[in-house]
Structures are given as structure tokens and as C-alpha cells.
Amino acid sequence: MSKLAKYLNRHIIGNVFEQSSILQAYNSDRSILQYTPRFVALPEVADDVRRLVRFANQLAMRNFRLPITVRGSGMDKTGAAIGDGMVISMERLNNIEEIDVRGRLVRVQPGITLGSLNSALALHGLTLPIAANPHMTIGGLIANCLDDDFSSRHGGIFHYVEQAEVVLASGDIIQLHPYTARAIDTKMQTTSAEGAIYRKIEQLLDQHGDTVTERTMRPFDTAGYANITRVRQGHTTNLLPLLFASQGTLGIITDVILRVNLSAPDHRSMVAVLRDTKTLLRALDFIKDLDPAFIRIYDMRIIEIATTQGNRPGLLEQSPDDGWLMEVGFDFRKGKTERKLQQCLGVLPPGTFAVSETKDNTVDFREFCTALLSFLNTDNNGERIAALDDVYIPSYKLADFTQDLQVLEETLGIILPLFGSFATSNYSVRPVIDYTSLSGRQLLMNFLRQYSRLVVKHGGSLTGGSPEGRVKLLPGAQPLPENEQKLYHDIKSTFDPYNILNPGVKLNVDAKMVLRHLRTTSRPGLITP
């Protein structure tokens, strides 16, 4: 092993590896990129993270480059969970440290997955109401701040984090939660790294006051460090919002206190197949006012493709083969949910194919997830890549967007069936592109450019449902205003003056460098939404 790896292994409880077989296992996430790290570190305790980060910071002070990328379960789809320096995997920091049932609070390490946490909470009649991939870690949910299917009703991960312990780029550990003006004044009078950050952020809020106000007036998305608008709330200051959607570029979370909810009654759903987009939207506009837990829509071509693999949901055996599949779920008490479902059915045009969930067909409703997985994993000639997932399209523009999407399909010669959440207006398409060839890679770049222009044309945002990472910055179709870019660069340099935490992610992306790191082989394993 190199001297660096040996040195680090002597100073942490966990492990630092540089064996090529291990590095290869961490060289990709769910994106179209591939970076092989120099080291992979698996810390056992928070102090390991602090020592690793401090070491990288000390090297940077001596002009030696060892950038750090923090990683959870590698579910990021924008190329933000991979890097060419040291990957710090939080997979061993995965414990539930405390559950306060009466206060509905839980303290966890960032490496615990959403599925594991909710399984444990369910024993106490509690839940964290996030409808994301259960393999995602809590740290990953915060770092990406995904607009999940439940977020229109339950608020998303942002609304459930009460406090976090964070390792700064200097290696110092701080606690982030709301502080009063007096407490902030006390911190700013210290000579610590924490005090310096609070002094600088207070200056930035004053210097860029107009920019922060302008950003507040626009619809929120995850580009840059847009949560700077939430740092000052009333008489308190809280830097924690900046960590949301930061993708590990400002600090590394090592401990989290979450507020959780009482377990809701079981969801009950209904599905319907509508033949055209306008009819779909008329129904959805009414249903959205009923406060559903989720509203998902799928281009029926997804079901058609799944059918070729034998995975057509049994509930759809008699349904039309074209149009849109709508899935709506409620989680109210039994009587109220039943009334809501009946209202949904009542608004549908006569003759519409529709099925409500009952005790007898509950298992059958799981087959819609099965059909989507089948669609994502069927093609043998290329990978259904997560190139630009989770884009925001305003609901009033969805009909026009889908029309132009059909034109784009004909132009590029690939099918682009849309799926996503109408409740949050976040959608994805998965093109099949064989990017192992030069022509395939050219087609991929052409898709990125034209699809991103289409999103912007219809008032949407590439970063409406998930941050930019590296991939969403490639098309260059949605640049931030210069004053906003300046503010975000100042925030980054405040937290990470030597630029060691995930450089080239969110800001200062080197497009040519990113293009050189496009994967040339299909990603092994299951392709997921």
C-alpha cells in the first residue's frame, strides 16, 4: 500500500483501501459517469471522518490535491457520488442511536437507509413519510433533497431534520440547528472555524441581500445553494438548510436528529387509463385538490414494454393499450379515504377504465412498481440511462411538453415514454442509448442538449426535483444569473476554502473533463427509478 493509505489506516478505526478491485466497486453511481477513486475509506465512527477530512485539508494547504467525495448507497443519478480522489463511504455509520417515541424524534447516523429506518420505526407506530428508494441513506436524502412522491403532502426530507452534526472541510465538527441572534453573536466572537463561517455567512446575507430576495421570489429548485433563502427565519439563524441539496460540497453529516410522524393508515389507491393528455389533465387538476398522498402518471408504452416480459399488471388485463396510466393514493382514515376514491372515480369520463384498491386486490397494486422495473431493465442493446431524471414541468405546460416530446422522439429516433409525479410536477424519461459506440455517445449528448432545451422552453427546470451534480450542468441550457453564481461561489469558499469537498459538483463543472468520464459500459445490477 502507498504511504498515504498506511498512514491513514494507522490513525482511524475504520479502513482505507486502494486495491483496484475495491476501487472499481465504487467508481460509478446511478449516473452516466464513471470516476475511479484513488482511495476508498470506510469510517467506523464520526471521528474517523473528521481525521480523514482534516488530513485532506492539510494536504491542500500544501498544494497536494486529494479531493473528497462522500457516498451513501451510491444512488445519486447526477454523478455526485463518485470522484477521483478519496471516496468516503458512510455505509458503516448506519446505526439508530436513539428513539424518543413520546417526542417523535429519532437520532441516526447518516448511513442508515430509509427502508431500515422505517422498518425500525414501524415497531413503535412511527414513520418517516418519504416516498423514495428504500435503499437511499438518510445522508443521501439530505444531500440530494429529492422531491419525492409524498413531498407535496408531507413536505419532504427538508421538513423532518431537526439538527445535524457536520464535519467541515477543516475537520472541525459543528452542530447545526436554529440559533438566536444572541447565540450567533457569541459564536462570531470566537476564533474557531465555526465562528469564521457564521461571520462570513452573515456578511454574505447583507452583501447579497438583493440577490437573496430575488431568489426568494422565484419558484424553489435545487440549483446552487438556493436554501440560503431559508438561513434567516424570524429571529433565528440556521445554517442547516444549506446542507440540503449540497451534494457533499459544504460538509459531511455524521449524525442527524429527525422528527417523525405517527404511522398513517395504510394507503389505498385507484388506477385509471385515460386516452389523451387533455382528458388526463382535467381529471388530475380535480384530483389534486383532494389532497392525495401521491399522484403518479405513466405513459402506457411503459406497460406495453413490460407486457413483452410477462409483467403486465393483472389489474390492466382489460385496459386500453395506449394513453396514460394514472395512479392515485390516499392515506386518510378508512371512511374519508373511501369518499376520496369515489370522488376520483366520479370525475372520470364515462367508459374510462378504472379500478379501486380493495382487500382482495391489494397485492395486485404492487405490480405497477414491477412493471416499471421491467421497463427499465428489458433492453439488451443499450441501457435505459438516468440521463436527466427528475425535471420539473409546470402542470399547465404538461400537455404542450408531451407534444414536443413526441417530436423529439421522431427527431432522435428513440422512444421517450414519460413517468413521474403529477403532485410534485417532477418527471423522468429513460432513453435507450448504446453509448459504448462513438455514434451512441454523440446521440447521448444530442439528447441532453435537446431535452434540456425542451424543459426550459416549457417553463421547467432541470433541477426542480434533484440537484445538478455534474450531469445536469452538461447541457448548459439553464445558466444561473451572474449575481446568483457569485453568491453560491462565495458560500462554497466560506465552507470549503481549499475546494476539497466534491470539487466540480454543482459549481465550476469542467464539461470536457466530465465528458471524458462518460461510462463506456453498462452499469451492472438493477436499473431503478
Topology:
Layout (H helix, E strand, L loop, with lengths): L2 H9 L3 E3 L2 H6 L13 E4 L3 H16 L6 E4 L14 E4 L6 E5 L4 E4 L5 H9 L3 E2 L10 H7 L6 H4 L6 E7 L5 E4 L2 E2 H8 L4 H15 L1 H9 L14 E2 L2 E2 L14 E8 L1 E2 L5 E7 L2 H12 L5 E6 H8 L16 E7 L3 H14 L5 E4 L5 H4 L1 H10 L6 E2 L6 E2 L5 H15 L6 E3 L4 E3 L3 E2 L4 H20 L24 H14 L15 H6 L13
Parallel strand pairs: 2-4, 3-4
Antiparallel strand pairs: 1-2, 5-6, 6-13, 7-14, 8-9, 8-13, 10-12, 11-12, 15-17, 15-18, 16-17, 16-21, 19-23, 20-22, 21-22
What would you note in describing this structure?
The protein has 529 residues and is of the alpha+beta class. It is 35% helix and 17% strand. The protein has 18 helices and 23 strands. It is globular. The mean pLDDT is 94.
